[in-house]
Amino acid sequence: MGAEIRHVAREEWAATVRALRDEGYLMLTDLTAVDYLSHGNRVLPDDVVPERFEVVAGVLDLNERRRLRLRAQVPAAEPRIESLFAVHPGAEALEREVFDMFGITFDGHPDLTRILMPEDWEGYPLRKDYAIGRIPVQFKAAPR
Amino acid sequence: MSPPTGKGLEGLNHNFLTGTVEDVVKWARRNSVWPATFGLACCAIEMMATGAAHYDLSRFGMEVFRASPRQADLMIVAGRVSQKMAPVLRQVYDQMMEPKWVISMGVCASSGGMFNNYAIVQGVDQIVPVDVYAPGCPPNPQTLIHAILTLHELIRTGEITKRRAGTGAGAGFELGHSHAPEPSHVTISAGSR
After folding, report:
1. Minimal Cβ distance to A139: which of B94, B117, B127
2. What residues of chain B lie within 8 A of the CB of A139, using their CB?
């Protein structure tokens, strides 16, 4: 889509986005994640070590008319990354969705709870090793 | 039989029917099944068409879709039930008065249909006991009316009541007289008079 891609280290995630915001990328257009469970040997720059998850964010500079896509590698053993809430408050719901669907924790998020699935749901549906089809009903009781 | 006398009793000898109380109750229940408003998806459009003038559910005494589950006898689950909707559905069902019935309308409510994924309950019978399944995607008004008439027949013959008593389905308690005292057996002998 003509966007420039920049790979960001997990530890510098929030600082990078903050610097970009101060540089002119004022708008966070999207934040999501990808599960590369069976794509460990995908093509990446030489200095980037592939991990199972990638958190992807898109930022937009309206004045200069430029977009930037940021990608951060997140290991399956420790699926957590810094929250962007302090930089872009609009990331609140997006990070909750990533947490709900992929089980990636965002450090510094004010209210990291499930947003789409029921609050007592077990499992993260968009992980590639999640069951396909005929997912058991986890309904326990009607609210009292 | 001598003609009854008294004001208002003229013609009594040919103006009434006899029957068991049970049959009269079943007849009354069958002819005024009030559905709860529970449209969830595109099936609800067909359900509304069924209730509207062309198909005219009022022929069966069913045109009153109640917004309150307290006043409804029948829940027509019209559409796919999401996992988050499941507790709400069960709560509405629990709030309905006995006797109550459930029609699972369309393949989504019956089996999940084309939504074979984590978001949709794969069959509403895992949440509430279903009496009649209406097939189709969505079922057209004729199919829904057929399902309703099937339910009416089950109510009229008492099949549902028998099955509920056997399985304990319903809102966790049986229909009938399980709490009524045992009939007392009194032996009257000639000497005790």
Report:
1. B127
2. 83, 86-87, 90, 121, 126-127
The total number of residues shown for chain B amounts to: 193
Q: For A13-64, how does the pLDDT look when each residue is reduced to its tens digit (9 = 90+)? A: 999 999 999 999 999 999 999 999 988 888 888 889 999 999 999 999 999 9
Q: How far is CA B130 from the centre of its chain?
A: 10
Contacts of B187 (CB under 8 A, 6+ apart): none
Question: In B11-112, which ranges are continuous DSSP H helix?
Answer: 21-31, 43-51, 86-95, 106-111
CA dist A125 and A138 (Å) reads: 13
Structure tokens at A1: 């889509």
Query: Are the C-beta atoms of B41 and B108 separated by less than 8 Å?
Result: yes
Q: Report yes or no: B114 at the A interface, CB cutoff 8 Å.
A: no
* First and final C-alpha spacing in chain B: 33
Nearest residue to A75 (alpha-carbon basis) of A25, A35, A106, A45: A35
Minimal CA separation from B105 to chain A, in Å:
19
ipTM strictly over 0.85?
no
